[in-house]
Design a protein that fits this description.
This protein has 198 residues and is α+β, with helices and mostly antiparallel strands. It has one domain: 3-Layer(aba) Sandwich (Glutaredoxin). The protein contains 5 helices and 9 strands.
Length: 198
């Protein structure tokens, strides 16, 4: 069985801005199945870039903030529903690399992830298409396939988990704006974290 089947439908040389079409992709998930962005048309999709060794990722996972955000996002009472895709773009030999679906399955269990899928992007093609800079780097795609959010998970770039409670969670605020049929107040923010290990 092929470890990875991935094809980019759109390539990008510049950062993708809210309002632009999100690049399509097909990646292998933690169960060894192919997952395509196209299969979630008609839903909101949250993308999260992940590297388990990054202290900024650890800030959110060890404090249960990322899992809580995943849960709240997926259970937000939005008509079109929300899918959460966590993507690992760490290359072989680099920090956070996940070698195969079996390792990804162990990771999703160990982290108590509530993402819909943990996707493997070891050659970094999807990360580069989205101009993903950091772990975590977050995106929201609307049911029409357009990017509506690009940036950080929250408003405080400290790696200290103690700041989470006083931080503005940009993902949950964006989904709240969507639910209320409002324009997203902070559609583009500066992502923070470790550089993606391409």
């Amino acid at each position: 069985m092929k470890f990875l089947l991935m094809s980019l439908l759109i390539s990008s040389t510049f950062a993708i801005l809210p309002g632009e079409k999100a690049p399509g992709f097909k990646l292998t998930n933690h169960e060894g199945n192919e997952v395509s962005l196209d299969q979630f048309k008609g839903k909101y999709v949250v993308l999260e870039w992940y590297n388990e060794g990054c202290p900024f990722v650890r800030k959110h996972y060890d404090a249960n903030n990322m899992q809580s955000t995943q849960d709240k996002a997926k259970n937000e009472n939005i008509k079109e529903s929300v899918v959460w895709l966590t993507i690992n773009s760490s290359a072989k030999g680099k920090q956070g690399h996940i070698a195969n679906p079996k390792e990804a399955f162990k990771t999703i269990k160990k982290e108590n992830m509530l993402a819909s899928h943990l996707l493997l992007d070891p050659n970094g093609s999807v990360g580069r298409a989205y101009e993903a800079k950091t772990t975590p780097h977050m995106y929201i795609i609307n049911p029409k396939g357009q990017l509506v959010y690009n940036g950080a998970i929250d408003s405080n770039s400290s790696p200290n988990p103690a700041v989470i409670k006083s931080s503005k969670n940009y993902i949950l605020e964006a989904l709240s704006d969507i639910k209320a049929s409002r324009e997203i107040a902070s559609a583009k923010t500066k992502p923070y974290g470790c550089s993606v290990k391409y």
